[in-house]
Amino acid sequence: MLAIQVLINALVLGCLYACIAIGFSLVWGVLNVINLIHGSFIVLGAYLAWGAYNALGLSPWYSLLIAAPSFFVFGYLLQRLLLNRVITAPVLVTLTLTFGLDLILNNAMIYYFKADYRKLILNPPTGSVSIFDVVVPVDRLIATASALALTFLLYLLLRRSKVGRAIVAVRLDRDAAVLMGVNVKSIYAVAFGLGAALAGCAGVLMALIFPISPLTSSAYLGKAFVVCVLGGLGSVSGALAGGLLLALVEGVGSVYLGPAHAVTLSFVLLIIFLVVRPQGLLGRKGFE
Amino acid sequence: MFHPRLVLAALSASFLLAAAGLGATSSVASAQDVIRFGAPLPITGPLAPEAVKQQQGYDLWAEQANKAGGINVGGKKYKVEIVYSDYQSNTPRSVQTTEQMITQDKVNFMFGPFGSGAAKAASTIAEKYKVPMLAATASSSQVYDQNYKYLFGTFTPNDTLTTPLTKLVKAKATDVKKVAILARNDLFPLAIAQEMEKSAKENGLEVVYFEKYAINTLDHSATLSQIKSLAPQWVFITGYTNDLLLIRKQMVDQQMKAGVVTMIAGPAYQEFIDSAGATAENISSASWWHPAEKYDGKDIFGSTANFVKLFKDKYKLEPDYAHASAAVCGALFQMAIEKAGSLDRDKVRDELAKMDVVTFWGPVKFGANGQINSLEPPVFQIQAGKPVVLFPDAIKQGDFKLGVN
User: Fold this and answer.
1) Contact criterion met (CB < 8 Å) for A259 and B217
2) Do B242 and A216 touch (CB under 8 A)?
């Protein structure tokens, strides 16, 4: 029974990890930018949900509707005004720029929200469902479903819409896309905006589950990074595969080796992947 | 004939010199009337919330001391000045900061940095320069095992928290046979978990699970499922506020129930109670001090009730043991300096070493290694959203309630 419970836990956690990583993967895949501000975006999304619930009594499901457009605009402007200026520079330059932006955003959050840990407590609590002694918390289930829905929406967007095809085209061959009349700068901004919107939505969902503090941003960023390396860049399903693999390794590792070694195990796996299969489980060129 | 511009330049130069001279003398004069205390704190970084607590404690003491005219040194009053420095939650930097305060900022006395690890590291510097250092938040006995002469601490060893707790559980919850212990892999949380394991075994309880989790762990579901499958009646978890909030939430998610659930060190903090909401109910814990204590002290704050009142007036919140310990460190320095009647570091150190006095914090007497050995730390439980003291009997506010759902 324990084995089934651990598997179910891992399945749900894997989807949450995918939710954390998907925006990061999109930006990395399309723009070739390692967006270090991603973790702080998630935390900001969590504060949005927390504030909307406590001050306005707004359920987190509505906060998702606020988070998606506002983070999109924020991300779009950030890319348009700042990142586009250095996008053609070597990867270290964009890395440093997002690192600096992250410092500013994170410290601004420490200043305004303080570093204290807060928690979004839904009233009434959502509780858990149990089937034959296997327990699944409802909030995680909902977050998982929303994560899958967001992932599917992104997939549809990239597959079916004109903008989506342009993003994929830029990812595949920037120069050819320019020749086909794609406005690359604008597509970059749209992709970054989408990444930010996904991070903001992930933050709203994480607010239901994890304690909220600016200090947790590095933990989210770390997970996003590992998920992307394991799953591979360039596909929506890659983030999902990476998230599930990471959650499974952590879950099984913590039962058989103890929780202190679960994190070690996941990083050992990361190193093995970097050496043996650097493109990740499902990595490929072009974002599908 | 002098050029007018030259005259002007000469005039302004002499004026500047005079001003500089004046400035220097006035600062010399004020330096003589001020006692400077160095306080290295993790003002930024992950430990920032802890730094705020200590800072509030020190500031309250300094304010009270200065309001009374200052510290009386052989008939002359000296104002208190606290020199803060941020070591960014980075232990090696706390050592540099301590050295800088002693050599460049010329502080008279030192407060220790936050926690056992940093206090142990920084105490080496205080010892080197023979500056008395009072550590407000260092409990692990490893901090004091170097037998330093200048280091003193206001937290009793970790086993003084776990032993009364085990005895209480043993007496009130007779069906508790199996204990599961989960500890954050960090100096203090791990040390207290190890003490718990020892204390459980000594009292004939079976420890069915003992594991550490890594710092920054984002999910505990697998671990908690495993603990649940072992069906312990007592679940003992150590960590800081964020860990314990997450673990508590996941325990509820996993529908994990136990007769006794103990968490150290979150529940002593109001933000834990606020953020855990109803799930904090019946969680037991222990700490070095509690605002419900009733000591009648000889220090500047006097009674515990007076300290709590002053603190609430200034900060509009209930003080916890971290606030109180910082404030008592200041009060102890004040008593030692007044008794020594001098700012001589060795004389003040000797007064601290032979101190035997009751304060709002409790009776204070330091052992030969510098760690306090006179306190009886309270055991408490969250009942109806409020901490209720269960032990010691002298300040007991309620009875132990079983069952955490």
Assistant:
1) yes
2) yes
Per-window interface: B 269-328 vs A, CB < 8 A:
271, 275-278
Rounded Cα distance, B349 and B148, in Å: 11
Q: Which residues contact B305 (CB under 8 A, 6 or more apart)?
A: B294
Name residue, tokens 């673990």: B247
Q: Rounded to whole angstroms, how far apart are CA atoms B68 and B33?
A: 14
We find that the CATH architecture of domain B159-287+379-395 is 3-Layer(aba) Sandwich (3.40)
Q: How confident is the model at residue B227 (pLDDT cuts 50, 70, 90)?
A: very high
Domain B30-156+292-365, classified CATH 2.40.170.20, yes or no: no
Give me A39's structure tokens.
């973790």
| Segment B144-159, tens digit of pLDDT | 998 899 999 999 988 8
Q: DSSP of A100-131, one letter per residue?
A: HHHHHHHHHHHHHH-S--B----SS---EEEE
Domains B30-156+292-365 and B159-287+379-395 share a fold: yes
Q: What ipTM was assigned to the predicted interfaces of this complex?
A: 0.82
Residue A258 with chain B: CB contacts under 8 Å: 211-212
CB of A262 less than 8 A from some CB of B: yes
Q: Which residue of B has its CA nearest to A250?
A: B222
- For residue B101, the SS3 value is helix
Can you spell out the DSSP letters for B43-69? -SSTTHHHHHHHHHHHHHHHHHHHHTT
Strands in B249-403 per DSSP E: 260-264, 283-286, 356-359, 362-365, 379-383, 386-391
CA distance A185 to A182: 9
Query: Best residue in B43, B242, B271 to probe A by mutation, most A CBs within 10 Å?
Result: B242
Q: For residue B10, is pLDDT > 70?
A: no
Residues A260, B44: C-beta atoms closer than 8 Å:
no
| Domain residue spans of chain B | 30-156+292-365, 159-287+379-395
- Helices and strands in chain B: count of H runs, count of E runs: 12, 15
